[in-house]
């Protein structure tokens, strides 16, 4: 599969990479286990190697099928999640609106501050009073 084919799959939302990784992992583990088991059984090295390669090819096919099913399941779950919990769309005010922050930038801002409701600095907070109140 060349780059353009992979890009076409990726654009459709289908990625084949996880399925190939699972297939490769399955086949390499099976190959290693066959080498170890065949050597431990005392078989001829040519026999062990040929059987291990054959098992590796068969388990790659099985791993590819399992990986494809797993990938389809994950993509289905993700698509259902996106439908159930869509990302909220926040509409911004246009620049020419009177309520726009850009429209207010040139205006002078005046704020009446109530002395009692001002936020206290850390130096003004009595820690012991807060602990006793809790």
What does this structure look like?
By secondary structure, this protein is an all-alpha fold. It has two domains: about 5-85, no CATH class; about 100-134, no CATH class. Helix content is about 65%, strand content about 0%. The chain is built from five helices and no strands. It is elongated, with a radius of gyration of 33 Å.
Write the layout of secondary structure elements.
Layout: H1 3-11, H2 17-41, H3 45-84, H4 101-104, H5 127-133
Keywords: Membrane, Transmembrane, Transmembrane helix
Transmembrane segments: 21-41, 53-74
Characterize this entry briefly.
Keywords: Membrane, Transmembrane, Transmembrane helix. By secondary structure, the protein is an all-alpha fold.
Number of domains: 2
Structural class: mainly alpha
Distance between the termini: 66 Å
What is the chain-wise order of helices and strands?
HHHHH
Mean pLDDT score: 76
Major pleated sheet = none
* Number of distinct beta strands: 0
Instruction: Give me the Rg, rounded.
Output: 33 Å
Principal-axes geometry comes out as elongated
| Count of helical stretches | 5
> What fraction strand?
under 5%
Q: What percentage of residues falls in helices of 4 or more residues? A: 55-70%
- Spans of at least 5 consecutive residues whose pLDDT stays below 50 are none
């Amino acid at each position: 599969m060349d780059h353009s084919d992979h890009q076409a799959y990726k654009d459709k939302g289908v990625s084949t990479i996880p399925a190939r990784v699972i297939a490769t992992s399955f086949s390499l583990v099976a190959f290693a286990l066959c080498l170890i088991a065949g050597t431990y059984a005392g078989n001829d090295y040519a026999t062990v190697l040929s059987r291990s390669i054959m098992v590796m090819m068969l388990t790659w096919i099985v791993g590819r099928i399992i990986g494809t099913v797993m990938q389809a399941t994950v993509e289905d779950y993700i698509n259902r999640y996106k439908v159930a919990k869509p990302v909220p769309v926040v509409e911004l005010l246009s620049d020419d609106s009177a309520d726009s922050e850009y429209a207010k930038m040139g205006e002078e801002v005046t704020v009446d501050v109530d002395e009692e409701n001002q936020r206290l600095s850390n130096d003004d907070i009595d820690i012991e009073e807060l602990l006793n109140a809790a």
